[in-house]
Design goal:
The complex is a heterodimer of chains A (116) and B (112).
Chain A: E1 4-7, E2 10-13, E3 19-25, E4 30-38, E5 44-51, E6 57-58, E7 67-73, E8 76-81, E9 90-98, E10 106-107, E11 111-115
Chain B: E1 5-7, E2 10-14, E3 19-24, E4 29-37, E5 44-49, E6 55-58, E7 61-65, E8 71-76, E9 85-93, E10 101-102, E11 106-111
Parallel strand pairs in B: 2-11
Antiparallel strand pairs in B: 1-3, 3-8, 4-5, 4-9, 6-7, 7-8, 9-10, 9-11
The chains are: A mainly beta (116), B mainly beta (112).
């Protein structure tokens, strides 16, 4: 149980285009999902907290107009990188917190974004 | 501000050796998790500790939560090459909700 999927696993896009990444909890409902960014051999950096049915909460320094988050259902959150630039290239990982459960987060497999 | 100080950052040992990874903070956590991550994959939850002084064992891995819930350790006995990976500690601050605060990670390499 507690499986989280992400799609796509890898994406290459051109500068100026937008990319959408999906995060799904497959066998549980998640009122809260989280989006992280990870640089090579570094730890995870929290970008935003996604709450079902309400606006996401962004961490300091993360542009909400650039990283659009939508949490439309209890099993799906999306992150859209708008007008992507090469510096947005990174490994993006989502996690989900099971509704009614302990403070545990289950992570997706990540999405490798490369902006050319 | 790094709430969780994780050490060591890098560790290279030979198969059969023991090792301990530490996570320390001046803050109190309601829970603390340990994850293991392979390159190009998401972190996989190993254990959650919630009670001060708690000790949990997962085969050759022993996890301990400090009495004051400010620190934790991961001890691996007789390390094997399959233990190679990035180990991350992460905690939820007491009273803060669900957001995880991650340590910087420990990159472990176990050579045959």
């Amino acid at each position: 149980g507690a499986v989280v999927s992400q799609h796509p696993s890898r994406v290459i896009c051109k500068s100026g285009t937008s990319v959408k990444i999906e995060c799904r909890s497959l066998d549980f409902q998640a009122t809260t999902m989280f989006w992280y960014r990870q640089f090579p051999k570094k730890s995870l950096m929290l970008m935003a907290t996604s709450n079902e049915g309400s606006k996401a909460t962004y961490e300091q320094g993360v542009e909400k107009d650039k990283f659009l988050i939508n949490h439309a259902s209890l099993t799906l959150s999306t992150l859209t990188v708008t007008s992507a630039h090469p510096e947005d290239s990174s490994f993006y990982i989502c996690s989900a917190n099971p509704a009614g459960g302990r403070n545990e987060q289950y992570f997706g497999p990540g999405t490798r974004l490369t902006v050319t | 501000t790094q709430l969780l100080e994780q050490s060591p950052q890098f560790l290279s040992i030979q198969e059969g050796e023991n090792l301990t990874v530490y996570c320390n903070s001046s803050s109190v956590f309601s829970s603390l998790q340990w994850y293991r991550q392979e390159p190009g994959e998401g972190p996989v939850l190993l254990v959650t500790v919630v009670t001060g002084g708690e000790v949990k064992k997962l085969k050759r891995l022993t996890f301990q939560f400090g009495d004051a819930r400010k620190d934790s350790s991961l001890h691996i006995t007789a390390a094997q090459p399959g233990d190679t990976g990035l180990y991350l500690c992460a905690g939820v601050l007491l009273g803060s909700g669900y957001a995880l605060n991650f340590g910087k990670g420990t990159s472990l390499l176990v050579t045959p």
